Amino acid sequence: MVGALIGEHGMSERRSCRAANISRTVFRYVRKPRDDREVQEALSELATKHPDLGLDKYYPMLRKAGRRWNKKRVRRVYRAMGLNKRRKHKRRLPTRDPQPLAVPEGPNVSWSCDFMTDVLSGGRRFRTFNLLEDFNREGLAIEVDLSLTAERVVRVLDRIALVKGLPLRIRMDNGPELTSTALEEWAALNEVELDFIEPGKPMQNGYIERFNRSYRQGVLDMYIFDTLDEVRSKTEEWLRVYNEERPHDSLGDLTPVEYLEKNRPENWNLQRY
Question: What is the pTM of this model?
């Protein structure tokens, strides 16, 4: 309308805008093309380095790296690049009798452990023994081998105890390695309580179950392995990223290492930590 008044009737821009009841700023506005190349490069780098993660993890990582982009802009570029992950939706039954997990008041109050199984490219199966600190969700160890006996589990616990100290209790399921005499004797010698969950109720050990899911998505389902050394190498690097770089929703988008430094209780029992 303003253009017609100016071009056909010879009116000034000021009078034409007043007649159309719009400001001259609106009439002169020209949309600037968006330059998202820097955002695209940052997202591409994260997607290459952490292909198992999504926007909910990438955005806190970008903020920690000093990138102050608005989340809506990052989401728009993320979707335009086709990086949004397709999610599988499962029909879930409502929980009838939930078993809440207590949040430990400090480190070395409660650890969780569990076993996982996968297969090499040649068809040979291997196992992993996963150990988690419940307080800050830190992955303490992932032991990988073809066979993991109760004696091997004890050696892993001793190795971690040299660095982290001993916990008050360890939560676990009722597997044969974990109900063995060797582990029972180790626990009695070191005054560690073995906290067994009820059979058929894995969510009573929910912290390690969530850790197992992340490990499977990030390593076991991400690569095809020919040898155990390849599994150990990828696992070691993934565990470092999990503890030191990856933000955790349950920790307020802090990493386990950052959360421990920020929330370490004063005058903690140094004999056990």
Answer: 0.77
